[in-house]
Amino acid sequence: MSAEQVAGAEIRVLVPTVCRNDYLAALRRMTRQDRPDLLIDLFNRLQRFTTAVDFSSNRSAQAHLAAANAFVDANDAASRGVHLVLPSPGD
Q1: What is the pLDDT of residues 50-71, one digit of tens each?
Q2: What is the DSSP letter of 57?
Q3: DSSP letter at 86?
Q4: Separation CA 57–CA 66 (nearest Å)
């Protein structure tokens, strides 16, 4: 997928651990029900998230990802109601 994004001058997309179940559900819906809308919406949201993370250093990237709940296990997140948080500009 990254090769297609780079070839199309699109930014790469991170699928954080917290979004794993959403990603798999979107893939299932697309392949089993021929409904790509959920996957497209998810990729749009993840692309906005990826562009908002400061990757200028490993330390800043890890801090942004942790603050956004990106490292939370997807199953734990579902049971606790934790979601991916889009970083605010300047965070």
Answers
A1: 999 999 999 999 999 999 999 9
A2: S
A3: P
A4: 14
Separation of CA 87 from chain center? 12
Q: What is the dihedral of CA 68, 42, 81, 59, to 10 degrees?
A: -20
Domain segments of the chain as ranges: 15-77
**Residue 67, token pair as written in the block:** 């603050």
Rounded CA separation 23/17 (Å): 10
- Predicted confidence (pLDDT) per residue in 26-44, tens digit: 999 999 999 999 999 999 9
User: What pLDDT was estimated at residue 26?
Assistant: 96
User: Do 54 and 40 form a contact (C-beta atoms < 8 A)?
Assistant: no
